[in-house]
Amino acid sequence: MMEKDAKIYVAGHRGMVGSAIVRALTKAGYHNIITRTHKELNLCRQADVEEFFAAEKPDYVFLAAAKVGGIVANESALADFMYDNMILEMNVIHSAWQNGCKKLLFLGSSCIYPRMAPQPMPESCLLTSELEKTNEAYALAKISGLKYCEFLNRQYGTEYISAMPTNLYGPNDNYHPTHSHVLPALIRRFHEAKEQGLKEVTCWGTGTPLREFLYVDDLADACLFLMNNYSGNETVNVGTGKELTIKELTELVAEIVGYEGEIKWDPTKPDGTPRKLLDVTKLKNLGWTYKTELPDGIRMAYDDFLHNPMRAER
Predict the structure, then answer these.
(1) Residues 6 or more apart whose Cβ sits within 8 Å of residue 26
(2) Alpha-carbon distance 212 to 238, whole Å?
(3) pLDDT tens digit string along 106-118?
(4) In sequence order, what are the beta bridge partners of 276?
(5) Across-strand partners of 237?
(6) Which of the following is catalytic: 30, 60, 113, 138?
(7) Is 263 within 8 Å of 201 (Cβ atoms)?
(8) Is 230 known to be catalytic?
(9) What are the residues whose beta carbons fall under 8 Å from the beta carbon of 298, sequence distance 6 or more?
(10) Bigger pLDDT: 68 vs 279
């Protein structure tokens, strides 16, 4: 168990996941939380990261920092996604080990699993077949991070664990019209369509892929749970175990936002992986389950969008 006065570093505290972890830690009574903005500490600069860890020597680390984006962002910046994510995670994990960090939690993504993985996807299917090409660079970087944690455990006896969340959404999300993930992109698109009085909205693909979504504060709760209750080399899936089609998701978002126009589909645009449902049996057996149902979570996410002054610039 993490001590309440332990020094805890949350990497990426301004992002959606990192900010949720800070909220969860604060709510749970942890009061010695260390954070640094990108301007204060560029995690891609090895010397700066080494200097930070040598000075602060955190007891625990939540590695939530990452370069993230949707299909368009991933396909247009393959090299950037691979380099930035691999460099920053290796810098943080390595410096944590060098400076005696008691325990580290590395956050990956469900995209690490093969494109045609068995459904629901168990942790054991990792590296059993080829990845989805549209996010291969990001997935390879994340796989490297979780494997480095495993190899440090095996070689040096560290206690570094990895969690693989499903698709996330919630407060402090990225609502950029082309660089965001599907759910926040839909929130913005339907909100603007409603405001502009548009009679129709065209969405990418066929609407048939199946996806699973987890409210980000539920993920943060799971991260604290794992930090306090799990040790092992194998990663742990974090999700709801429920899925719906992109078409169903789109109709749900439109209803919650209040858009009443027609929804059309452009099948010339990519769908991505046909199905992505995590097998969350392992986490349930450990004693954790999600709390926020999707309609409730989308309503809270839409409220965050309406009160997010940076949404137009992101």
Answers:
(1) 33
(2) 11
(3) 999 998 999 889 9
(4) 211
(5) 164
(6) 138
(7) yes
(8) no
(9) 169, 183, 187, 252, 253, 256
(10) 279
Closest CA to 192 of 258, 266, 264, 263: 258
Rounded Cα–Cα distance for residues 277 and 179 (Å): 23
Please say if the pLDDT value at position 314 is more than 60: no
Task: Say which residues have a Cβ less than 8 Å from residue 51's Cβ, sequence separation at least 6.
Answer: none
**How far apart, in Å, are the Cα atoms of 137 and each of 108, 264, 312?**
13, 31, 27
Whether the model clears a pTM of 0.85, i.e. scores above it, the answer is: yes
Count of residues in the chain: 314
What residues does 58 pair with on adjacent strands? Answer: none
- What's the rounded Cα separation, in Å, for the pair 237 and 7? 26
Q: Which amino acid is at 303?
A: D
Three-state SS for 261? coil
The string of DSSP letters for 64-87 reads: -------HHHHHH-HHHHHHHHHH
The structure tokens listed for 299 are 């309503």
CB 142 within 8 A of CB 112: yes
Provide the pLDDT for residue 310: 62
Determine the Cα–Cα distance for residues 96 and 252; give it in Å rounded to an integer.
42
If pLDDT is split at 50, 70 and 90, which confidence band does 133 have?
confident
Q: What count of other Cβ atoms lies within 10 Å of the Cβ of residue 262?
A: 11
Report pLDDT for 267. 94
